[in-house]
Amino acid sequence: GTPDFRWIPNVAKLIFDGCTSLRRVDESIGHLRSLVCLNLRECSSLEQIPDTISRFSCLETLDLHGYSNVSTLPENLGNLTSLKNLILNATNLTGLPESVTLMVNLKLLSLCRCRSLKQLPKLIGRLKSLTEFQISQGEIPSIPESIGLLTNLRKLKIEGCSSLVALPASIRSLENLEDLSIEGCKGIRDIPDFFGGILKLKRLSMGGTDLLKALPSSFFHLRSLERWSFSSIGQQFEWAGGADFSHLSSLTHVDFSPHFVSYSYACRGLHSGLDTFPLLESLDLSRCRDVGSIPKLPLVGIKNG
């Protein structure tokens, strides 16, 4: 265990990174009212987080990466209203306490490789300061509609969540979003017509969306889009009415390469619109056997191996 923290009341940072034998944190940790950073990364034997951490009025970073022994967090975690970074990667959490939505200063919420995660707080939209939200490999069937209230969000990554079948239309309200990834979300069939509201989007990753049928028309008006990955989509996908890329004038990097030849469907019907990318530097068509002829392009690099 840890020592009695009452003897070091002015500590600002506590770092137990990689202390794999640590089983408990002394309750006296709640006396560290000046604590700004608590790092318990890879403390894989830790049995619980003491409720007294809710007293940390100055805490800005809580890193519980690899905290794999328990499935829940203290209900009063939301009392950490100064928290800016909450890192819960590679944990066995099944959900988050609703009180998390009271963290009004939170900027980063990271839930990568949380394979047991089954739901998100319904009122996650209360986290108005959030600029980066990432979740991967969870079992969540849906994203709360309230996510549309996160108007300061710049980066949204929802990756490898195979149980997810749809995205909320409220994403159209994320007017400051610059980076969106739904890579590996194999259950998504349709994407709501929300691209018209996220016109600042610069990076979009959609690879591995096996059941996706089509893209909404508003996608083709993303004038700020610079990087687009659309590799390894499924057989059902079709470019409805062809592909008009003429408004995607900022694109510099495009990746249509499937991981396997059998996933080359995104390449069909592309050749008619490929010559409309004036800034294109890189185009990856590896294993795209159905693309047909390729027009003359002002490329720095083209790959079609």
UniProtKB/TrEMBL annotation:
Keywords: Repeat. The keyword Amino-acid biosynthesis does not apply. It comes from the Eukaryota. Signal peptide: none annotated. Residues 68-159 form the Disease resistance R13L4/SHOC-2-like LRR domain. Pfam families: LRR_14. This is Disease resistance R13L4/SHOC-2-like LRR domain-containing protein. The lineage of its organism: Eukaryota, Viridiplantae, Streptophyta, Embryophyta, Tracheophyta.
